[in-house]
Amino acid sequence: MGAQHARDTTVLVDMDEVIAYYLEGLDRALVAADPDYPLVPHEERTGYAHLGGPGFNPESLAAGMNTPGLFRNLRPVEGAVEVLREMAGEGLNVLVVTTPTYGNPTCVQDKYEWMDRHVGPEWVNRTIIAYDKTVVSGAVLIDDKPSITGSMEPSWKHLLFTRPYNRYVESVPRIEKWEDWKQTVLPLIEPSYA
Ligand SMILES: Cc1cn([C@H]2C[C@H](O)[C@@H](COP(=O)(O)O)O2)c(=O)[nH]c1=O
Ligand SMILES: [Mg+2]
């Protein structure tokens, strides 16, 4: 079979903190696991891995992160589901690419169920759960993590989805909010597409 597109129109979209509010769900799970857990207000997080306040117990953090059902109950980010559908409707090949939490026994199933419930059943097989996002081919990856590394030189250009803990990053182009997708995503696919 020949190539279906004359150029790569694949847009890869991260899940946690990009289309689903992971940190809200994690906070609930942390307090359930340890009522004294020192939560970090989201606006005060200084980095991606800043998940506990002074004196936090790493075992409580692990218990929260590994809570069954955590990933099933996340709230969708405003506008995200609509934009996924809109991008697909414009002929882009949209795939959701997300890293699992290995110790969470329901994480993988929860992520597929979340996509089915919030975006639609046809999006389940558009969901790639992978530790190494560099092996997934695409034109653009929209992701909140400041630095994404793996075993390959990525084919995609990273578009940083703005969250409080990545505001200090200046080296990566960013998308501030979903409604900006046309101005930010399309020029990275091909300038003439915009
Ligand atoms: C936002 C965030 C996520 N994680 C954990 C939770 C998930 O298992 C993965 C998701 O990673 P991805 O880069 O969004 O695919 O990582 C975390 O540990 N800390 C965070 O701030
Ligand atoms: Mg993320």
Automatic annotation (TrEMBL):
Active site feature: D14, D16
Any one of the GO BP annotations: pyrimidine deoxyribonucleotide catabolic process
Pfam families: NT5C
Matches recorded under InterPro entries: 5'(3')-deoxyribonucleotidase, HAD-like_sf, HAD_sf
Gene Ontology molecular function, alphabetical: 5'-nucleotidase activity
PANTHER family for the chain: 5'(3')-DEOXYRIBONUCLEOTIDASE
Record family assignment: Belongs to the 5'(3')-deoxyribonucleotidase family.
Protein name: Uncharacterized protein
Upper lineage: Bacteria, Bacillati, Actinomycetota, Actinomycetes, Micrococcales
